[in-house]
Model the fold of this input.
Amino acid sequence: MFFDEIKVVETSIKQLKTDLIAIKDGVDGHYDQLDDIAAHVIALEAVMVAVLKKTEVDAAAVKAWIVDATTGSTGEEGGSEKAQIIVDNLLEGNPVPERKD
Done:
């Protein structure tokens, strides 16, 4: 009886190991996807900064669009404040937003 319980524990531990490996593999895949997304965002920011140096942009119109597009999802009347800060930074030629903590 005691050895049967040990076998059950051993089986559970082996299953836990298998499950943890599967979780690790899933996390690794998500990390790779996030890294790809980050690379695309950085590339798009670089292109936008180059375009914005040569093109006139109405910052108020861009921010109004952000408010309209994000008010519902943020639950804030002013929409995404972060997105508006990024607009200011991109228009200044600086794709890295300043932290306002």
Q: What stands out?
A: The chain has two domains: 1-55, 57-101. The chain has a mean pLDDT of 88. Residues 24 and 30 are 10 Å apart (CA to CA). Residues 57-101 form one domain.
